Amino acid sequence: MPLSKQLGLSLLAVLILVFIGTLWINVHNTRNFVAQQLASHAQDTATSLGLSIAPYVAETDDLPIVDTMMNAIFDRGFYQSMVLRDANQRVLIEKHNPNQVDGVPKWFSELLPLTPPESSTDLNDGWTMAGTLMVKSHPGFGYQQLWQNAVQSFWMILAVFIAALVLLYGLVTMITTPLLAVVKQADAISKQQFEQIKGIPRTPELKRIVLAVNRMSAQLAKLFSQLTKQAERYRDYSYQDTLTGVANRRAFELAFEHLLTDSEQHSQGYLLLIRLTSLSEVNNEQGYQAGDEYVKLVSQELKNVLTQPALNGTLYRISGADFVILLEDTAQQACITLTEAIIAQLNAVEKSEYRLGTAHLGAGSFSFGDSRTDILERADNALAGASVATQRWQLSHQQDVLHSNTQWRDQLKTILQQKHADFVAQPIKNHKDGILYSEWFARFRTDKTEGYLPMGQLVPASVRLNYAQKLDELLIASALIKLKDHPHAIGLNVSRLSLSQTSFHQWLLRALPDDNATCAKLVLEIPERALVNGTEDLVRFIAQLKSRGVRITVERFGAQLAAITHLRHIRPDYLKLDGRFVRNIHNEPDNQLFVQSLVNIAHGLNIQVIAEMIESEAEAACLQDLFVDYLQGYYIGKPVETKV
Question: Would the pTM of this model clear 0.90, i.e. be above it?
Fold first, then answer.
């Protein structure tokens, strides 16, 4: 029970007892007073009336006079009975009023009975005993007086009681409001939300508590900010070019190697090699400062071109005069369009001192499994051709084995019509071999004799042809059917394009089972890039999923540290480190420092960390030393066909 209710109910019970006790004491004292008044009234009447009728009692003929005198007193209605007896105790005159009380509830008279005593006086005729007069007051007037006093006391005490309740509410509110604010702030701190309590109470004890919590929140906010900046410094030092601020050659090698070996994503796209052909002359003729300005100018123009939201490209500087742009999941026509835009933009800023031109560009395609050397050689050959071409760019030509867009569109339509997908599962385990969940990878085939379709080509084709959302819906629907009878939790990847669509949000919320226990076995893996480009709708959507029991993993984490600022809003359950930082980590001190800083940040947010693409015992041991919670990869467990 909340403290406010405990205090309120306790003080309310005390007030009720005080109310009842005060009312009872008041009424009880009034009752005793009324009883004494009735007894005194009866005795006074008996004495005075007895003196008046004493001379007439001895004579029988005078009894009418006595009766008249008694009637004059009795008819006033204040008496219940009057009895006159002679010396031998024979009743001479007897008068009674009914024992009826008007205007007083029966329950009240039964609760507080009044029994007036009989008062008597002896009547003397000289020295002779003439008789006895018995007088008893009527309790009706006593009940009326007692009832009026009880009603007046009730309303007066009730008014005081209500006023006390109002004061009690104010007192409890004054005490509990700061305490509730402290509790709320403590809960927010556990979620790494370091806000300040603005309403400082005036009560010294409560004021000290609130100020202490505010100081703690400020210190923790400072600590978290320091951890984030430390991670950024590690990344900048190891993976950022100091002159231009873009990613350096080391970052390019890690990212490109990851793309070519990532058996989960099966990435494909284009590599654009951009060379500043006039840089050597500028350095020799105008000095290195002018050369640096040249490099920074081109870098800024390239970054401006890549700000287009539809592009999934990253810029790297791999040498003094060479930049590389990696375009993931990009069609050939989109690559050509971007290439033309880059050359047009660089031509627009060309200066007279750039006698050989601002830059030339060569592009070559890549896909999962290609050799990095072969791809760079193709791009370099294309760059050599661009250096003598009037358009200043060239795309390397090679025999493509990919389906055409028309063929892929037909294939995707066939897949969607079948409304079925097969899966293979790869476990995610802790260091004690306990399974957290299994990530499911989809497989499709339309003709059993042809085997499975290459997902590395199917997924990019679905993006190019606007089938990504429908494909995600099919995969999730198929997995949910299997999930009902599956004993363990499963993880499914959701594309960034689907997450940006409100229609997909609505579909998934409808498709989820009503049973929260079943929903708790579903883990959705969302790309880190979705957080950077996310909206309030995405934050709200993830909150709705978590309220249904669905768990969230942010995958490929670490490539863009800007996503850290969004973690506190979506509160994912797990972070999956980008494989480029995990690969061969035991031989990469820079990667170890960077991963350790990311783990510290995640654990500070109560988020567990998963490392993927573990392929050796040395990598697993190193990650365990860095306090990574869970591992995934061929060394941990190979993908196997699902049994359900």
Answer: no
